[in-house]
């Protein structure tokens, strides 16, 4: 068996950091499985190696539309579900050694076959557990030909099994030696498991950036972040509020707010009605027209505003100013409009409920 201290040491290799010099964006599907968080430093002509395609090509399409050349590999499918002029597909898979009889080849083999000599390529892998022997065997000189790597790690909750730990630790140490681990996200299709009393996600999406490309800062994000999306829609996303993903350098109040925001994002993913409300609210605010002074219009705008900014609920003056900024016409008398909105606001269910609570508290 693997000792508890060895398990903790191995899990610590999954501790992320913030990248200081680059923005992060989501590439691929925005609302489910198939999207990955990456550093925003893409350039037309870059090569992308994408392993494990199946029927999900939104990541690859996103890369191709940005002008990158995408080399797609999957030995389990006959053809792609969608094509693109910058797609280059082979019905082959990736392995730690060449196995022509199984249509499996090394990363080195594919790079050499394509004649690529670049040192700024991008690697994406979702290969159902084959990443571990591959990463343990691969030459770091090959890995560092890629400036970004994004992949899904499988079987992490087997970390207490000696055989798996022999793959996991060397593979992660090799990655961490040359790359910053700058984002993580747990795939919610599998439940969090307990390993020697520690919560461990079996499936973890990770994003890596080569160390020469950015400085780092201590991790400050509770996952899911605003860039994340639940892989399995209709169920809560996993909140990674535990070791080794929980920020260690935040003040208690800031950490509390980060966890609360992450929980709200995670539960919204499981509640289509909440998502629909948020979409409705964003549309109302986007289409608001100046001059909306009728009670019904102000109430609708108030409700939409509270959906987007719940911290305003019950705060009449702050809400009034937000609405005034949106609806005031240049020729209007601001004081007169302010009074009209104030009267409408006091008929708003949220504000009137708050005012009643306040009056009871004062009395």
SSE inventory with pairings:
Blueprint: H1 4-12, E1 17-19, E2 24-28, E3 35-39, E4 47-51, H2 58-65, E5 69-73, E6 87-90, E7 93-94, E8 104-105, H3 107-114, E9 121-125, H4 131-137, H5 140-143, E10 146-153, H6 162-178, E11 179-186, E12 193-195, E13 198-200, E14 204-210, E15 216-218, H7 252-268, H8 272-287, H9 295-308, H10 316-327, H11 334-345, H12 349-362
Parallel strand pairs: 4-5, 4-9, 5-6, 7-8, 9-10
Antiparallel strand pairs: 1-15, 2-3, 10-14, 11-14, 12-13
Give your account of this protein's structure:
The chain is of the alpha/beta class. The protein has two domains: 231 residues, Rossmann fold (3-Layer(aba) Sandwich); 91 residues, no CATH class. 38% of the residues lie in helices and 19% in strands. The chain has twelve helices and 15 strands. A seven-stranded mixed beta sheet has the order 6-5-4-9-10-14-11. A two-stranded antiparallel ribbon has the order 1-15. Helix 8 crosses helix 9. The longest helix has 17 residues. The C terminus is likely disordered.
């Amino acid at each position: 068996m693997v000792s508890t201290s060895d398990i903790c040491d191995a899990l610590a290799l999954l501790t992320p950091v913030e990248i200081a010099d680059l923005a992060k964006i989501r590439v691929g599907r925005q609302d489910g499985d198939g999207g990955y968080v990456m550093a925003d430093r893409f350039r037309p002509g870059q090569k992308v190696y994408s392993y494990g395609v199946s029927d999900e090509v939104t990541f690859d399409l996103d890369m191709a539309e940005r002008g990158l050349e995408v080399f797609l590999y999957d030995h389990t499918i006959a053809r792609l579900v969608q094509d693109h002029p910058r797609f280059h597909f082979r019905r082959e898979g990736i392995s730690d050694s060449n196995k022509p009889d199984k249509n499996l080849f090394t990363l080195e083999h594919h790079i050499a076959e394509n004649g690529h000599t670049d040192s700024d390529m991008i690697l994406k892998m979702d290969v159902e557990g084959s990443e571990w022997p591959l990463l343990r065997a691969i030459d770091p000189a090959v890995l560092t030909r890629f400036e970004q790597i994004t992949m899904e790690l499988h079987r992490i909750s087997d970390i207490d099994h000696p055989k798996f730990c022999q793959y996991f630790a060397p593979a992660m140490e090799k990655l961490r030696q040359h790359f910053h681990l700058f984002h993580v996200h747990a795939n919610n299709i599998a439940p969090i498991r307990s390993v020697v009393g520690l919560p461990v996600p079996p499936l973890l999406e990770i994003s890596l950036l080569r160390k020469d490309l950015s400085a780092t800062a201590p991790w400050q994000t509770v996952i899911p972040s605003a860039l994340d999306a639940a892989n399995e829609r209709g169920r809560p996303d996993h909140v990674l509020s535990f070791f080794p993903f929980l920020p260690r350098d935040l003040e208690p109040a800031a950490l509390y707010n980060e966890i609360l925001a992450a929980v709200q994002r995670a539960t919204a993913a499981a509640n289509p009605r909440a998502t629909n409300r948020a979409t409705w609210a964003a549309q109302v605010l986007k289409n608001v027209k100046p001059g909306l002074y009728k009670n019904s219009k102000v109430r609708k705008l108030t409700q939409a505003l509270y959906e987007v900014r719940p911290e305003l609920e019950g705060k009449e003056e702050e809400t009034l100013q937000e609405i005034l900024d949106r609806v005031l016409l240049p020729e209007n008398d601001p004081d007169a409009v302010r009074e009209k909105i104030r009267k409408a606001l006091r008929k708003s269910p949220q504000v009137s409920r708050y005012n009643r609570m306040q009056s009871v508290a004062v009395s």
